[in-house]
C-alpha cells in the first residue's frame, strides 16, 4: 500500500470503530422503538374503542408507518454524520480541507467553457489544499438541464435531465490563460 493509503487506513481505523458503535446504538434504538410505538398506538386505540372490535389492522399499519418513518429519519441522520466524519478524516489524513457543499462555485468554470450548458447544478463534497506544492481544489458536481417533452396524451411536460456528473478539479498553474481552455480525453 502507498504511504497516503496507509495513512488514511491508520487514521480512520479508530473512526471506523466509533462509527460502528454509533450504528449499533441507532439499531438498538430502532429495535426498542418499534415495540414501544406498537404499545403506544395500542394504548391510543384502546382509549378510542368503546367496547367494540379492536382495530388490529389499523394499529399494525400505523405502527409500520411510524417505524418506517423513524428508520428513514435515523438512517438519514446516521448517513450524514458518517459521511462527514469519514470524508473529514480522509481529508485530514491527506492534509486537505473538506467542505460538504464544495469549495468553489460552478460559475467559476462556466467562463472557461469546459462544462456543458445546464439549468441547475448541485455541488457536493469539496476538498482543497496543497498537494506537492501546488494549490488544488476538487469537488463532485452534477449539472442538469430542464427539457420539455411531448407525452403520449399530447400534453407537454418538463423533465430534469442530467448532462454531467463527475469531478471538477481546479489547479493553480501560476499563470492566466488568455483563451478558453479545452480539455480532451486521450
Layout of SSEs?
Blueprint lengths: L2 H46 L7 H38 L2 E4 L7 H4 L9 E12 L2 E17 L5 E16 L15
Antiparallel strand pairs: 1-2, 2-3, 3-4
Helix pairs in contact: 1-2
Commentary on this structure:
The protein is of the alpha+beta class. The protein is 47% helix and 26% strand. It has helices spanning 3-48, 56-93, 107-110; strands at residues 96-99, 120-131, 134-150, 156-171. The two termini are 28 Å apart.
The total strand number stands at 4
**Side-by-side strand order of the widest sheet:** 1-2-3-4
Strand content: 25-35%
Shape: flat
Tell me, rounded to a whole number, the average pLDDT: 86
Descriptive keywords:
alpha+beta; four-stranded antiparallel β-sheet; flat; 186 residues; 47% helix
Amino acid at each position: 500500500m502507498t504511504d497516503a493509503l496507509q495513512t488514511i487506513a491508520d487514521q480512520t481505523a479508530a473512526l471506523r470503530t466509533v462509527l460502528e458503535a454509533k450504528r449499533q446504538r441507532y439499531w438498538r434504538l430502532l429495535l426498542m422503538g418499534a415495540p414501544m410505538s406498537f404499545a403506544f398506538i395500542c394504548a391510543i386505540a384502546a382509549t378510542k374503542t368503546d367496547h367494540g372490535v379492536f382495530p388490529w389492522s389499523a394499529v399494525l399499519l400505523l405502527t409500520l408507518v411510524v417505524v418506517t418513518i423513524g428508520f428513514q429519519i435515523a438512517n438519514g441522520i446516521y448517513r450524514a454524520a458518517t459521511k462527514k466524519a469519514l470524508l473529514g478524516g480522509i481529508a485530514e489524513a491527506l492534509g486537505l480541507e473538506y467542505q460538504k457543499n464544495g469549495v468553489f462555485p460552478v460559475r467559476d468554470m462556466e467562463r472557461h467553457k469546459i462544462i456543458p450548458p445546464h439549468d441547475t447544478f448541485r455541488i457536493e463534497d469539496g476538498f482543497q489544499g496543497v498537494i506537492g506544492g501546488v494549490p488544488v481544489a476538487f469537488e463532485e458536481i452534477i449539472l442538469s438541464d430542464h427539457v420539455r417533452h411531448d407525452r403520449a396524451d399530447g400534453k407537454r411536460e418538463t423533465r430534469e435531465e442530467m448532462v454531467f456528473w463527475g469531478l471538477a478539479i481546479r489547479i493553480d498553474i501560476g499563470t492566466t490563460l488568455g483563451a478558453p481552455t479545452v480539455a480532451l480525453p486521450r
